[in-house]
Structures are given as structure tokens and as C-alpha cells.
Write a structure and sequence with these properties.
Rossmann fold; seven-stranded parallel sheet; nine-stranded mixed sheet; single chain; alpha/beta; 13 helices
Length: 470
């Protein structure tokens, strides 16, 4: 199991661009590349999935146990597995570093490639790297890639520093190039489902990485990783994948919004929905005038605010979704999906009408209104079946908007133990057969939501739908 963890000395060092380039460049060489992303991110994994031509899966200490992280990592076979870290190598939500990239590298016995931004730096790079080496000697920093190198003379000086002071291989020097940058927005990179000329951008990044990084030495480091506990000495898995809740009963068709406005879905959750008996039917909220024939809807996160004029203009689909939910169509929406189902979105001086099934208005702000991990408690009003569901569980939120002017007397699926949600106390508006929340759920051992939703869709499909409004 050849594998690497790409981390950095600090945030905004360029590790995402470099990881994208490595995935794409190695794939060009005919290798099967399996990407992973540490933490609850959606946007970087979308780019990594495109670069590697394989879905990127998240590894997250907060929502997964160490066993589940290990099993997720081992489940997806490839010639090389590449994990992109988050933040700096030793950064964590706790002072002990139990949730850090370094802790992940230790858990998965994975060599670390450290990305260091050397803007305005020469000899000072030595104490930085030596300090990272000595801080936790159990972590194997197996190679270094220097980013933002000013030019040939700068590179020569940096290589001299490595020869004299540092005993870690210098795998590459990435010269400063504004064309390597990917446009950013308030949550980070512009998602690949919105960006123009995605493949052209990835080709450019792959070319730069292939020229400036020693890919042979990089792969030698990846192949030097020891067998994991679930592997034989030949690198083959010796333990079966972790059991997953299976499907049962009739197949159901669930429409899923997949377009430039909505694209935040965990690949593992989509797999679990299918395993539970769902056929996922994509539809485009910007172009499709009617819903496909489906038994339920799933509208995930995204950036509806950047497409609100086009969403408003597609009044046919907005009306179809409104009427379907009023008629009892089981629907799950989160974050961007919740925003779309509200009466309107206001961003600065602009205001656009949305679906209008949720009796409130979305207002965009300049700063995050809800950010980070949250802890939820089921209120008892969630219509999804699920005896034995945990009383409390972790999820995450990251939104620059709030739902305002809400009608009183609403029913909520969740109480907020920690986090913002809709009003600081609740999340998950329940209306007819709709559940809509700001938080993003993830189907993990601590909370298997996908099977419950599919079972609910199946139950509703077996009985006549209501008509009219409430």
C-alpha cells in the first residue's frame, strides 16, 4: 500500500495545489491514484477527485473513530494513496495534537511530505524544517517540497542550505507562478463544479509539478511505507472492509441536485445511499424545468448565492419542487439546499426569490455565522425511522448566511448541544416530509443517517401522497 500524507508548515503554503499536481501527474504515468482529505472539507476533495479520477474520501478524527479511519483508508485500493492534510502538520483542535495531521500520519504509518512556502526565505528554512523534525521524532518527514521559489538563483541557494543543514530529501522546488493559483471564495477554492476550464487548469498544474518534483523519488518514499495492520507483507488487505448497514426492500429513486450551484456531497454517503437501496437520479437546478420521476429528493450544500439569479429565473423547477414537498415528497436538504428552499436569498443589495417552502429568508454576511464542528441531539421530531440512533452525535457547519424572518412554531429535528444551526438552539426544520438543516451530516459509525432516510423514502413511496398546502 504505497501512501503519502502531504502536509505543510502552516496553512496557505500551497499544499492543495501541489497535491492536485501530484495526483494528476502520477495518474498521467498510468498509476491508479486514490486521494483522501483530512477533515470535513468538500471543496478540496472535489478538486482532488477530478485530478485523480477517483472519488476523494475524508478522514476525520472528530466524526470517525480511529478504527473507522483506518478501515476507510484501507477500503479503496490503488497504486498509491495520497492524503492531503489540513492546516499545519501539528495543528489540532486540542493542545495535545490528537486530531492533527501528524496524528493521522502516525495512525496510518504514512510518510509525510512537508510543503514549505519559502517566500522571502533562504537559510531560515533550515531551523523550520529541523524544528518540525525534532518536535515529534515518531513522525517520519520523508521529503520536502519548497513552494514559492523566486527563481533559479533562489533555488540554488535553497539547495545549498539543504546540502549543508538538512538530511531530508528535497523533492522539488516549485517556482512562483500566478497561473498555478485557483480562484478562491469565502469558503476557500472555487469548487470544481463551478470553475471554468477545470481540466485545463489541472493540466497546467500537473505539467508544473512533473517538471519541478522528482516523482520517482516521491514514489520510492510512498512504497517504503510499512504494511498496515490490515495488510499482509505483500500489501494485500487481510481484513474485510468494515461492515455497512445493508439495504432492504424495494429500490427507490432519489433525485440529487448536481450542478454548479450544488455539489457538496461526501462520496461515501452517496455509496451508503446506494447500498441502502437508492438509485441516485441527478438533476440540474439551473437548467431542468421539471423534476425527474423520483420518490425523494436530496439537495446538498453548495453556493446558491453565487447563482441566485439563475435559480430565480428557473421558476418552473422552483414551483415543481415547492409543489412536490407540499405533496409529501420526502426531501433532505442541508446548508445550500436549505438556502434554496427558503423564500429568498439577499446578498448585499440583491435579493432573489427561491423555492419558498421554508417560511424564512436567507441573508448573507461578510463573516461566518456558523463554523466548525457541532454536536446535535435528536429532538424526537425527526420523521426518519431509526430505533437505536445515538442520542448525540457530531456534524459540522460552515455558512456565511442566516435564516431570518422565520415564522414561529416551527418543528425541529435537532437540538444544538454545541454550534449555531438555524437559531443557536435548533436545526433541521421539519415540514411535512422535509428535513432541512444548516449542518452537514456524514454517514459514519456514530450516525448512520443514509439508511434512515432511504427507509423513510421507501415508507412514503408505499403510501399515497398528500395534495394541497398546509
Amino acid at each position: 500500500m504505497a501512501r503519502l500524507l502531504i502536509s505543510a508548515a502552516h496553512k496557505s503554503s500551497g499544499k492543495t495545489t501541489i497535491t492536485l499536481g501530484l495526483c494528476a501527474a502520477l495518474r498521467r504515468r498510468g498509476l491508479a491514484v486514490q486521494p483522501f482529505k483530512k477533515g470535513p472539507d468538500y471543496i478540496d476533495p472535489m478538486w482532488l477527485s477530478r485530478a485523480a479520477a477517483n472519488p476523494c474520501h475524508n478522514l476525520d478524527f472528530q466524526t470517525q473513530s480511529e478504527t473507522e479511519i483506518h478501515d476507510t483508508f484501507a477500503r479503496y485500493a490503488a497504486d498509491v494513496r495520497i492524503i492531503e492534510g489540513n492546516m499545519g502538520l501539528f495543528d489540532s483542535i486540542d493542545v495535545e495534537g490528537r486530531h492533527s495531521n501528524a496524528a493521522l500520519a502516525a495512525l496510518l504509518q504514512t510518510p509525510v511530505i512537508l510543503v514549505v512556502n519559502v517566500l522571502g526565505m533562504t537559510r531560515s528554512v533550515a531551523p523550520i524544517i529541523l524544528g518540525y523534525q525534532s518536535f515529534d521524532p515518531s513522525i517520519r518527514i520523508a521529503g520536502v517540497i519548497l513552494n514559492s521559489v523566486a527563481g533559479k538563483r533562489h533555488e540554488e541557494r535553497l539547495r545549498e542550505v539543504f546540502v549543508r543543514y538538512i538530511d531530508i530529501p528535497l523533492l522539488g522546488c516549485i517556482h512562483r507562478d500566478p497561473e498555478l493559483a485557483i480562484s478562491e471564495r469565502h469558503l476557500g477554492l472555487v469548487p470544481s463544479n463551478e470553475a471554468v476550464e477545470v481540466d485545463g487548469k489541472l493540466d497546467y498544474i500537473a505539467d508544473a509539478i512533473a517538471r519541478q518534483v522528482d516523482l520517482e523519488q516521491l514514489m520510492a518514499i510512498a512504497r517504503s511505507a510499512p504494511p498496515l495492520a490490515a495488510e499482509s507483507s505483500e500489501g494485500k488487505a487481510t481484513l474485510p472492509p468494515a461492515p455497512r448497514p445493508g439495504g432492504g426492500g424495494m429500490k427507490v429513486r432519489i433525485g440529487i441536485a448536481r450542478d454548479a450551484a450544488f455539489g457538496f456531497y461526501y462520496p461515501g454517503d452517496l455509496e451508503r445511499l446506494e447500498e441502502a437501496g437508492a438509485e441516485l437520479v441527478p438533476f440540474d437546478t439551473l437548467r431542468d424545468r421539471q423534476l425527474p420521476a423520483v420518490d425523494g429528493l436530496f439537495i446538498g450544500g453548495g453556493f446558491p448565492e453565487t447563482h441566485m439569479e439563475a435559480l430565480e429565473a428557473n421558476s418552473g423547477l422552483r414551483s415543481a419542487i415547492h409543489d412536490a414537498i407540499e405533496g409529501g415528497l420526502p426531501t433532505y436538504a442541508e446548508c445550500g439546499g436549505l438556502m434554496y428552499l427558503a423564500r429568498s436569498i439577499r446578498w448585499g443589495e440583491r435579493r432573489c426569490a427561491m423555492v419558498g417552502i421554508i417560511p424564512g429568508d436567507i441573508v448573507m454576511y461578510e463573516k461566518p455565522q456558523g463554523r466548525g464542528y457541532v454536536r446535535l441531539r435528536e429532538s424526537g421530531h425527526n420523521p426518519w425511522p431509526g430505533a437505536g440512533a445515538p442520542a448525540e452525535f457530531y456534524a459540522h457547519e460552515f455558512h456565511y448566511s442566516m435564516l431570518e424572518n422565520l415564522s414561529s412554531g416551527l418543528t425541529y429535528a435537532y437540538d444544538m448541544v454545541r454550534g449555531t444551526g438555524i437559531d443557536g438552539r435548533h436545526d433541521g426544520i421539519v415540514y411535512r416530509n422535509l428535513v432541512a438543516n444548516y449542518v452537514h451530516l456524514r454517514d459514519v459509525d456514530g450516525y448512520h443517517w443514509t439508511r434512515r432516510f432511504v427507509d423513510f423514502v421507501r415508507q412514503c413511496a408505499a403510501r399515497p401522497r398528500e395534495t394541497g398546502t398546509a
